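TEACHING EXERCISE
Course module: macromolecular assemblies
Task: Read the component lines below, then compare them to the predicted structure of the full complex.
Student: A.B.
Group: 4
Components provided:
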Amino acid sequence: MSYESYDKAPPIPPEDYYIVKHEDLLNFVKSVFVKLGVPEEHAYWTADNLVTADLRGISSHGVARLRRYVDGIINGAVKTHPNIKIVKEGPVYALVDGDSGLGQVVGRKAMELAISKAKDGGIGFVTVRMSNHFGISGYYAMMALDHDMIGISMTNARPLVAHTGALGKWIGTNPISLAAPTKVPPPFVLDMATSIVPIGKMEVYSRRGKKAPLGWGIDGQGKLTDDPMIIRKEGALLPLGGLGETYGGHKGYGLAVLVELLTGVLSGAALLKDVGQTEGPGPSNVGHFFMAVNVESFMPIDEFKERMDYMIRTLKSAPLHPDFKRIWIHGEKSYLTTQKRMRDGIPIYKKVMSMMKEVADRVGVEFPWEL
Amino acid sequence: MSYESYDKAPPIPPEDYYIVKHEDLLNFVKSVFVKLGVPEEHAYWTADNLVTADLRGISSHGVARLRRYVDGIINGAVKTHPNIKIVKEGPVYALVDGDSGLGQVVGRKAMELAISKAKDGGIGFVTVRMSNHFGISGYYAMMALDHDMIGISMTNARPLVAHTGALGKWIGTNPISLAAPTKVPPPFVLDMATSIVPIGKMEVYSRRGKKAPLGWGIDGQGKLTDDPMIIRKEGALLPLGGLGETYGGHKGYGLAVLVELLTGVLSGAALLKDVGQTEGPGPSNVGHFFMAVNVESFMPIDEFKERMDYMIRTLKSAPLHPDFKRIWIHGEKSYLTTQKRMRDGIPIYKKVMSMMKEVADRVGVEFPWEL
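Instructor-supplied answer key:
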């Protein structure tokens, strides 16, 4: 089987989607932010983050969220000209205050700081407070790849997950991302929510009127439910490992706390239910964590990449489980999807197109597509 | 309900266990290593690591493994006087070669190095090659607590887990540990295998002739099996998230790769199936990763601890799921178990006592218990 035209999230049913060119999407989104007063470069970063999510097949974190960022700026919860400052700093670490800027702008600046510190010091370790939702976490980890570094990125978020033993939403889907360079593409890119699934999956399932696999979430009384709407409303998502401790739900819960600790506790950001919404009214005070590791401090980059390739090759050489067609490595599906979508265009859900049209009209920028 | 006498792994059935004082156990294990030529202090570290596992209720990683370390030393695979050296170093990072010393000795020295680097530089980041099985990973993360630091520890290991899409054992149970100080004890201590369960659980289940919950592992053909012996022999454990991708098995797999990358790829240690056994014949070349984060570089330690307590208090304040009696935080069960076992003694399985007696006779040290 050829994977040249692989798409990890093909449009189903196709008639519910428009196909748009990624450059057009990027330019449009950028124009919205510029019109709202965001400096040109920052608008580009934000648009690039959102379109990268769509290219990688993570549409829940792509332009579908445009309105929230726009609302945040219009409501004054998100600042277009934040005074992003370093509160504490040493040669290899920093604590950054994002001053309620766009998460994509604060995140990018903080990861750049981590990378520049790692250039000289081997490691860059940056924790961030007073930021906003920063899009896909993997974006920041992947920034390290251009510098032959390992990148790590995490963020806390508004609670959506019931931790082990609890009812209701108490902790975010708190993602962990790590990117590492390889010789043979694609690079290794782990980008995972610490819940079984991110909330975006629930949105996709309820949009399609589909039942969710039993085990992803619970209802208000703590019973497993396959109704994505109940999970979203009165229920909650479950941590990786599921309900209870039998299959390691306490581990997924522990990883979510690990993320909360590095992104929230250590930075002074909001914690758990105190994290606000990007669309306001007040500052959301989201916390992030970024790390860059300069591989050359430990071994020649070529040797590292060869060792990465050897690890990946070995994992892929395993005999195939009868239920599977292929052994994947992390980031590979998104890489193939990006290649296909850069060539063939990005499928955008029709309702998302309408929302973008509304945003365009409201903000006063040209909407480049015919709906 | 009172948790004063809580034990996370009570002896079942009680008649299969002896109850021994932890000091006696520590002194005995230390005497074995001293007799084998291990320097006094290193013997103490190793014994302390093993007995700490038993105190915390993680008997799979405690003195039950004594013979493997003894065999390793006798076979020459593990050196009693390793030349542990720093291969690469900067102010906050180091690459350490453990020269096939005891994992507990190499691990302790490497974590001490990380802590001392974090004292001045804010962060200490140490990756290690040419080590051996180092016992419980949480031990090293917890070393940071005495210094008001966050500690992180990971290790790779011989393959026991079938990654997503694969048949057979291809990657280790690669644990992730993070410890962070709190004002109100216990401290937060996450210490988790990235598989659903560690192999020790399989040993406990097969010893008791019990079936394992379906979902923990597969047989040689990739089918889920509840037979712990089949999982141990021709089958494999499954990553956190389970078989396939539906419940996030690819995330547990990704976390295992993340650990392999930081402990193995970056350090130059053995990878995957190339990791050897502690008991020889050749060097096992296990890789570790340690990190220490000096909290005071980011905020006053009291503020950090109060923020930790607030997070934990909030998580514990959630309404209780009807299937649960209590919401736990990570490290709490092991903390209570340690308190009970320090007071009442440690239950040691009778077969483990016999094994220790054999070791005592073989090595020529006094066995302080009457069997």
